[in-house]
Amino acid sequence: MIIDNLEYNTEREKLIIPEYGRHMQKMINYAVSIEDKEERNKVARSIIAVMGNLQPHLRDVPEFQHKLWDQLFIMSDFKLDVEAPFPVLTKEKLQERPEPLNYPQNFPKYRFYGNNIKRMIDVANSWEEGDLKTALTYTIANHMKKCYLNWNKDTVEDSVIFDHLFELSNGKINLKGSKEDLTDSSNLLRGKKKKTNSGSKKSYRSRGKKRY
After folding, report:
1. Residues in the chain with pLDDT < 50?
2. d(CA 136, CA 127)
3. In angstroms, rounded to a whole number, what is the distance separating the alpha carbons of residues 28 and 212?
4. Residue 165 CB: number of other CB atoms within 10 A?
5. What's the whole-model pTM score?
C-alpha cells in the first residue's frame, strides 16, 4: 500500500540549515559522495548557483558569495572536499569563541556621563592653565550636570558634580570649594519637561434643546 511508503520528517535526517530545504541538503550529500574531485568541484559550483538563485539580488555580491560557500561547508558537515574561491570554513573556526569586547567606559559606575565627557576632560587636562581652560572646565561641569539630571533625577548638588569631575580627571581638575555656581537644575531640565497643550481645548457643538 502507498501508506506504507510514507516518510515522516521526524524520521528523516535533521536539516542543518532548514531554510534551503531537504532537496538542497540531498544535493550536498550527493556532492560529498562523489569520488572524482573534478566532478565534485563541478557539482559544488552548481549547488552554489542554485543557492544564489534563491536570492538573485545578492548572488553576484562577493561578500554574499563567501557566505554561500560557508553555508555549503556547514551543510556538508565540513565533509565536502572542494576547491573554493574563499578560505575554507572549518568546524573549529566556526565554533571558535570571539574575543571579549572591552567596555569603552573607563568609569562604568558613571555611565550616564558617556564617553565624550571623558574625552573632553582629557583635552582639558592637556591645556595650559588659564582663562580658556577654566571656561572649558566649567562647560564640562555644566554638561556633566545636565547628563546627571537626564539620568532620571530632579536635582543634584554642584558639589557632587565637582567630586565626579575630580575623580574622572584623576585629581587634575579640582573645583571643590569653588564659589562659582553651575547652571541651575531647573534651567537644565527645561527641555526635559513635557510640553502640555493647555491652550488647545476641545470644542463642543451645541446640541440644541433636549428631547423629552
Report:
1. 1, 195-207, 210-212
2. 10
3. 83
4. 24
5. 0.48
Asked if 174 contacts 166 with a C-beta cutoff of 8 angstroms, the reply is yes
Closest CA to 34 of 88, 76, 86, 87: 76
By C-alpha distance, which of 6, 13, 7, 10 is closest to 28? 13
Tell me the C-alpha distance between 164 and 144, whole Å. 9
- Kindly state the cell numbers that stand for 165: 569631575
Q: 13, exposed or middle or buried, with CB in 10 Å at 0-12, 13-18, 19+?
A: exposed
Q: Which three cell numbers stand for residue 112?
A: 550616564
Which of these, 90, 63, 67, lies nearest to 20 by C-alpha position?
67
Burial class (CB in 10 A: 0-12, 13-18, 19+), 118: middle
pLDDT of residue 212: 38
